[in-house]
Amino acid sequence: AQSVSQHNHHVILSEAASLELGCNYSYGGTVNLFWYVQYPGQHLQLLLKYFSGDPLVKGIKGFEAEFIKSKFSFNLRKPSVQWSDTAEYFCAVSSSGGYNKLIFGAGTRLAVHP
Amino acid sequence: EAGVAQSPRYKIIEKRQSVAFWCNPISGHATLYWYQQILGQGPKLLIQFQNNGVVDDSQLPKDRFSAERLKGVDSTLKIQPAKLEDSAVYLCASSLDGTGRMNTEAFFGQGTRLTVV
C-alpha cells in the first residue's frame, strides 16, 4: 500500500532563511508526486507536481522540489522564505497507473517570523 | 473556472445524530474524492468515485458512513450515527481523470468542519 512520510511536523524560520521539507513515499511502481499548501483559513492548493521528465520541478511562489527515485524522496525547497509562506505543507503521492488513489502525508506546519 | 463547492462550511451536531455533506466538483471532472482531515493530521482518503462508480472505499467506515454520486456529478457524504471521533474537516476534491490514463492533479473545496459534541 502507498504511504507518505513527512519528517518535520513543525518548522520555525526567520524571513530570508532557506527551507527544505522532507518527504518520502512508499510505493513500488511509477508515481505522481505533489506538494499542496494550505494557508490559514484557505483550502488546499497545488504548489507543484511531478509526473515525469526533469526530476527538478518548479512551482509557484519560488518553490521547487526534486524527485530522487533511488531515495523515494520528493523534498520541497525554497532559497529564501517570506512571512507569507507561513502555512501547512502536504506531500502527496498517487500511482501512475490504474485508479490513482491520492495519498497524503501528515503535513508540516511552517511558521516564518519577520 | 469555478472551483469545488462544498456545503455547509460548518456543522455542529450531537453524537448519535446524522449529518450530510454536499459537494459539487469542477465541471467535467470525472474523479471525485472525499477526505477526512482530523486536526493535526493529513487528509485521509475515505472514498473515490470515477463518474458515478466507486473505485476505492477501503477506508470508509461503512457501518456509519455512506456516499453517493448518482449522476456522476455532485456527491453527498453521510454519517449516521455520528461519534465524537468523527469531528474533523471533510474535504471534497475533484480531478479531470483519476484513472491513470492521464496525469492530473486534484482540486480541493473549502471543506466542511464537523464538530460532534
Give a written overview of the molecule.
The complex is a heterodimer of chains A (114) and B (117). Chain A is mainly β. Helix content of chain A is 0%, strand content 54%. In chain A, the strands form 3 sheets. In chain A, strands 2, 5, 6, 10, 11 and 12 form a 6-stranded mixed beta sheet that branches. Chain A has a 4-stranded antiparallel beta sheet with strand order 3-9-8-7, with no helix packed on it. In chain A, strands 1-4 form a two-stranded antiparallel sheet. Chain A is globular, with a radius of gyration of 14 Å. Chain A starts with a strand and ends with a strand. Chain B is mainly β. In chain B, strands 2, 4, 5, 6, 9, 10 and 11 form a 7-stranded mixed beta sheet that branches. The mean pLDDT of chain B is 92.
Note the main attributes of this structure:
A: 6-stranded mixed sheet; 0% helix; 54% strand; globular; B: 117 residues; mainly beta; 7-stranded mixed sheet
